[in-house]
Amino acid sequence: MLLHLNLGVYLMPIDLKAVTRKPPETVRFYVKRFDPETGRVWWQVYEVKTYRGMTILDALLKIKSEIDHSLSFRYSCRMGVCGSCGVVVNGEPRLACQTQVAEKATVSKPEIRVEPLYNFIVLRDLITDFTEFFEKHRRIKPYIIRRDLGEREKPTLEYSQSPEELSQYYEYSLCIMCGLCDASCPVYASDKLFLGPQALAQAYRFIADTRDEMWALRLEELDKEGSTYKCHFAASCSYVCPKVVDPAAAIQRLRSILFKYKLRLYRKKVSNVVPPMEVKAKPTPLPPEATVVERVSLEKLEEEKPLIPIDKLIE
Ligand code: FES
User: Fold this and answer.
1) Which of 39, 86, 150, 182 could make an S-S bridge to 178, C-beta 3.0–4.6 Å?
2) Å from CA of 175 to ligand 1 middle
3) pTM for this structure?
């Protein structure tokens, strides 16, 4: 069964049944390695005994603990949340912890190739340098900026936002900054000045947020960079995104906003600050077992003799 994740035109087929299938008993892993001390790059082969439900990250951990302690890779949460285990599996940027061995290795071809993310500087083996990635992310000012400094520093009220306004950017707020989109982007590969799909999708996320007031500042920056116009709409970023963020759509929306902004036609609704909503519902009573029994003297309780004498309990 194939599930098409993204809602756009370019969809990533995920083999959901892979988790229920047993992979070939032994899978040959070709891991691309790099030694920064000598500058040597080579493919190393490891034979790994597999089991049902094994992910690429499980296989790498097994290699590291049982076969080769020198293999380096990055991971943290093991559940597709931290975004640190991105690698290229059989030519496709994927999260190692979310990719089943059974999805990539078949009985007729029990082999898997694992490489570091494309378009990133490799530090060692599968570990890549994210300095530039975070630098580009910082450039789009990935936070809400308000004019009322007092309220920003010491908030006393709330920003009102309707569910419809939230839905304008919610999808884009799911980014886990794994870098798979940038690793798959042909423009990012060839133009170092291009901000990349991750940063641009996040620029859209904050421009579309009605709580943010500094959209003009971001649009000016994006116009200077020319980044939004460099996108060729290959849409490989949306294809590989493990969180259905669809950066390709965000860049197209950004283009349209920028175009209207240049013609002075762009209008944005900004949230008002409002007092917190009144809670009208009565507080729910605690269940009886959690109710605090009043007037119970702790001293008296300590003095009480246990129902079963201690010496009997020890017997
Ligand atoms: Fe956190 Fe894979 S280890 S996303």
Assistant:
1) 86
2) 13
3) 0.82
